[in-house]
Give the backbone structure.
Amino acid sequence: MESYTFEKALLSDVDAIMLVIEDARKFMALQHSGQWQDGHPRIERILQDIALGAYYVIRNNGHIVGGLALLDYEADYEQLLEGKWLQSGPYLVIHRFAIISTERGKGLA
């Protein structure tokens, strides 16, 4: 039986996180996406996210199968190129989200 948890990542999780990211990078390349094909996100960025307490992992029976950075600020959103925000106030941003191929299509995203 599958048992998923969502929890803050630990520094000891970084190797497993990078395996998930590399798997997602390959999947995006097969989909002809240019995203992450330049090597991002790099391990240094993931380590920084973990140190900030902003990187979370999804585990299935204890094994890391996904991860994401959950941030409460994004400098790029200070100046919108078009339109305007519908409301002001706090917000959360999801970055560096990846799910390993064996878990795709299960509604984890």
